[in-house]
Amino acid sequence: NFSDIFDNIHMVSCSRALQRLLLRPIFGLILIFVILTTVLHYFIEPNEDLPITTEEPTITTEEPWTNNDIYNIPTFDSNTVCDGECNDNDEKFITYLPHSQFNNQRIELENAILLAYYTNRTLIVPPLILGHISAWAPFDKLYDYLSLKLHKDKCSSRGSNAKSTGMHRIPPCDSWTKLNWYEVYNLTAIQKEERIRMMSAPSFKVEWIKETLQIKDDDIKYFKGDTLYNIMVYDDPQSTTALGKYQQRADISDLKSLPQKLIYFNSLFGGSRVLTELEEHQQLRRRILRRFVFIYPNVMSTANKIVAKLGGERSYIGIHVRVSDGPFKRGAQQIVESIMRKLSDFNSTSDEVGLLQSKTCQHDFGPINDKIIYMATDIVNSRETKEYGLLYENFPCIMTLSDFDPLLKDLTSVVNKWDNMNMYKFLLPFVDLIVSAKGGNFIGTSH
Fold this sequence. Notes:
It comes from Paraglomus brasilianum. This protein is an alpha/beta fold.
């Protein structure tokens, strides 16, 4: 019985008329998945508030790769070699630098998988970095920053500035961690179903790649770029799609003709960077995205417990309100007002909207529930934060992750095998995401 979770919420009965509010046709399985993946664009936005400084970094000497690293070294199995279509000497590779928060890294991975398929190259998948990570920067600066960052023996303790002089600020050890993408998504299924060759890497460092693949500097083609949106890849050679914010067009044939063993991109971020204009490629992207479902321990099970407590999938409204950082903090009032307008604009009758805007709210969370709002947010104590005042005043039937603390206990014991870091604080945003996405409707923070 979790009724004590809601003791702090002032309550009155909501009319059964709310059950009619915002009713939509039942989503098909594919549409539900699209919501889950699209929500990422709203929930975990690019974090450009951790900029790379303009100061030139101290150039560090590459450290040789050793088998002592507890992050598993990849092996070339049947999913990473040419499978009889070529010999090992003919196999070519592609990789990239990760940056910004989860959503950006997910988009980079999606684009990289498409490029691996288009070019018939093996994708070297760099680690997923959670927590403190830099924004985009030109290749050399981003590479140097991440090379320092991914060494736990070089990171700083909180309050220490000993390692920030003359180089980029090194974050505290407990502010970041990294995961193998195979722990997060079922990439093995994508490999087998689409015959896309992939291998996980403990590092994106050139020295590790050269040693592992037995290649030299001349075997590497860099696409460094001096801007975030430098290259746009066209899958249809007849396409007339405009470049838009991108600077340069690259056709698949251009990339396939490159003789180098390895293509090393800076950023692959961008929803329109790798086009899928051909029907077969559109279908490929959809199949790939269907596999982008969290498999990391306890994330889905915890989210599903909260969803069940809210009445089940599609029985509530999911919203995301981000106001804690950067331009979102500066535009907090406009963001909140926009969310409020959208909540009131679901073709509901004025009576239903009035009921949703009741001054208090009560829910028994039994088999039949009135509609409620689940809010994913980047603020811990949203009810005590002034930016959210208007929302709670007008729509008090709002629940957040903090209302379900007893259901989060399974996350407290999850430890990252790579650095023994407790994963609790890193996993909460994903649970928040999944719960909000499983509502019958979703409203996100505008870009």
